[in-house]
Design goal:
Layout lengths: L2 E12 L5 H12 L22 E6 L2 E7 L1 H12 L3 E4 L2 E4 L2 E10 L1 E15 L3 H9 L3 H22 L10 E14 L2 E15 L16 E2 L3 E2 L1
Antiparallel strand pairs: 1-3, 1-6, 2-3, 4-5, 7-9, 7-10, 7-11, 8-9
Length: 224
């Protein structure tokens, strides 16, 4: 099983969820657009379809960044250039570290299951949204979402340079919340749900569309 580092940095800057894209823009302005890991864009018109190793979030109303695997090394570029003040949208705000958590995780498949809660998960692109709506049975819809989630786990594994050799076992156990949200001006279905899987995952990482900007964040695993 691969051992990866994850750093969660929380700043003393108040930040609303709706301001996360502007926060990301502020960080990119500091490090420069040549650092693709900070924004996942190869060019203005070309997107890098890879798992984001630097993710922007809010933690208890404060700006935060989660760095995963290669992102741990990349974040040093920001700290060497950060002056403690950034422009978020049209406002200049202080940006000083309030807390930093550094952990190593044995990520991989285990003989036991782990239970997670994933919040505001954008599971479906436009094509899959149509397929999902065409399904009539609840069990069919759940199985469809399970396949999407397994796909997200494989994307994460690829992002940390891990080839998953054995089957991923995953079951959605509860879907307490489903809503329509806007991401980049486009409407998506957002799910907050519980699932269990034989893959051990670090807490605070994001899965699915918009993972780099706070969507699809998972909580701390619970062994079953």
């Amino acid at each position: 099983m691969p051992i990866i580092k994850v750093i969660k940095i929380t700043f003393d800057t108040n930040l609303k969820s709706s301001e996360i894209p502007k926060f990301r823009g502020a960080v990119v302005e500091v490090v420069g657009r040549q650092n693709v890991a900070f924004h996942n864009h190869i060019s203005d018109s070309q997107f890098a379809y890879s798992y984001p190793v630097i993710q922007y979030k809010t933690t208890n109303g404060k700006a935060s960044i989660v760095c995963i695997h290669d992102g741990v090394d990349e974040i040093h570029e920001f700290f060497t250039k950060n002056t403690g003040r950034v422009r978020i949208g049209s406002q200049f705000r202080p940006l000083m570290v309030e807390s930093m958590k550094i952990n190593s995780f044995d990520v991989g498949l285990t003989s036991t299951s782990h239970r997670y809660q994933i919040n505001d998960w954008l599971a479906l692109n436009e094509i899959n949204h149509i397929k999902y709506q065409e399904l009539e049975g609840i069990s069919e819809k759940v199985q469809f979402l399970e396949r999407m989630l397994i796909g997200n786990l494989l994307s994460f594994a690829k992002g940390i340079n891990w080839t998953v050799g054995d089957p991923i076992i995953l079951k959605i156990t509860d879907i307490p919340s489903e809503s329509t949200v806007k991401h980049k001006g486009i409407k998506f279905q957002s799910f907050s749900l519980s699932f269990k899987t034989n893959m051990y995952l670090p807490p605070d990482i994001g899965l699915g569309k918009g993972a780099s900007m706070g969507w699809g964040t998972i909580n701390k695993p619970i062994n079953l």
